[in-house]
Description:
elongated; 6-stranded mixed sheet
Amino acid sequence: MTLPLHSRKDLTARIMQEKIYSLLQQGKRLDGRGPRDLRPLTIQTNLVEKAEGSALVTMGGTKILTGIKVEVGTPYSDRPDEGSFAVNAELLPLASTTFEPGPPDERGVELARVVDRSLREGKAIDLKKLCIVEGEKAYILFIDIYVLDYDGNYYDPALISAMAALATLKIPRYRVVDGKLEKTDEYFTPELTALPFSVMIGVLGEKFLVDPQIDEEKVLDVSLIIGTDEKGNVVSIQKNSPGPVPMNLMDDIIELAWEKTQEIRRKFLETVPVKLAGE
Length: 279
């Protein structure tokens, strides 16, 4: 079977695509995993001394560092009783020869948006708990994601890293004294309200696989990053390649996404104990 490769000029890529597809037909992959197997996952927290929260996540050969800085600012006028957060992502040149120095390119912007959407739509944190004085002062979280090593699929470990940094975040507590804001010696960790995680699923012909490494990622027909919360709700979907998604595969892809995000969630909780608000 000859597979449709979007970049037919690249003979090497076409040969690799045929090899990967042949392995998938046998239930195998280049690195010895099965089609539904995630790469080994490790999580470390509180590594960056000058950040209020930080986490380093490795998923196979892909390594992501997230640091969170906290500032006090003015809440948005349409959300006067809420704090806020902003996500930024940088693909460091040392991580891959395809990453270039300078401002974040479209890939970095896309990564930040995918993580932001998963956190926001997944309602990972109660932003009302970040309000200090309604309409006047609130905490603003700056979530900075750095891709340190790239061997395919930086989306899932980036979200895991952001969640681990949020779960161990230490925010300085402020109080109002005589109408003025005063920093105390106390710190608090905001309660997480949900645990959204994502899984990247690649499609090649009528076969699909999870958590592609770099050689697989290069030759996929299409890939989806699907985020779910702990209740099984799909909170985000990102299609990050130009190929069509076979509709006859979508039910199986969504089911697989739920299965794999649950697996990530269990591994996360083994390293980062979290008690959700209301539990």
